[in-house]
């Protein structure tokens, strides 16, 4: 498949998948000026280069190190905190990656939460009998079945994508609760005798982990010295080389594989073209329906694996185990601008906040108020420089409020701590809203032969 589509005068660009129609004034849709080759279509902003990303990461590390010294909150950069954050980020990231596959093919998938539920139940059902690796496989299958239901409803029957996703969530909740009572809670059953009930499965074995002995011990020793920046970096790196689940390694491989599959292969170009201009893709011989089915099924499988990760991590399936992580995964996909790297960054952020409220509690979240206040103050100055008076004023007022809150208190109420991951979700989505560029044909019904 080439990077240009014919038949209707529409050009499909291989990297972004955006379509540009030539016209008399040399402009592209969305306000992009077609006279400059350096401009991106649809007014999209230039991508962050690797040096800029590394500078952002370095700046964040320095900020966290300073925060630790100023506030005395060692949990901000401790290896235990980041180990917990990594474990919390994996299911969210897998759900977000699943959403990316589906929506890049043009199918909105808010049924990720239900697909994760199916994955957790399938993992709990198989895991106590066959072990954690079979539990992971069962989770993939369970989530894929949920994705297949969503694909049948949206792709074949043309059901509204939002309605179908909500239906999948409700259906999955009812199915797993019914089957849990039937298989785990039945009196005299093998599952009940092994410790299961209508709210949870019997326990399963531990998932194997790996540790790099010499490196892990050395980083731990450096972390204990509490040196500026050096010990903080050692604490963060130590979480990646000590007691890491093999499922985490698999998740990292899936992110890398998704990038190469979707952006470095003809298969990925065809799949993304289905989400940008399915009619143009059809004129080039792409079987749009088949690609949409494949994308949504893979989406469910990835979400199901994320659900299985939850069950395997605590050794059992539990009722309501997903806890809204499918919705947060959807938020990471949007925050990440429908790119694997962005999804991974968003999952890391939300995983960090989730682990923070579980491990550290009020004092550490209180310390973060200072960091957020400084960041919002910097954002206000940047918006003011760009001429955004309203945004600058709002950011400045919130920054002052958070600073006053930090100075007048010593901790944060438990209720606010529990809300912190969801507040973070709202904040990052509001900040990222202006740079988002979803696939052009997302959520639109498609019927074979529309372009003829």
UniProtKB/TrEMBL annotation:
Keyword vocabulary terms for this entry: Cell membrane, Membrane, Transmembrane, Transmembrane helix
Bias-annotated ranges (Gly residues): 1-34
Membrane topology: Multi-pass membrane protein
InterPro entries named among the record's database cross-references: ABC_transp_permease
Location in or out of the cell: Cell membrane
GO cellular component labels: plasma membrane
Disordered: region residues: 1-42
Main location: membrane
Recorded superkingdom: Bacteria
Gene Ontology molecular function terms on file: transmembrane transporter activity
Residue ranges of the TM segments: 48-70, 82-100, 107-128, 134-155, 162-180, 244-263, 293-317, 364-382, 389-407
The protein, known as: ABC transporter permease
Originating species: Streptomyces bathyalis
Top-level taxonomy: Bacteria, Bacillati, Actinomycetota, Actinomycetes, Kitasatosporales
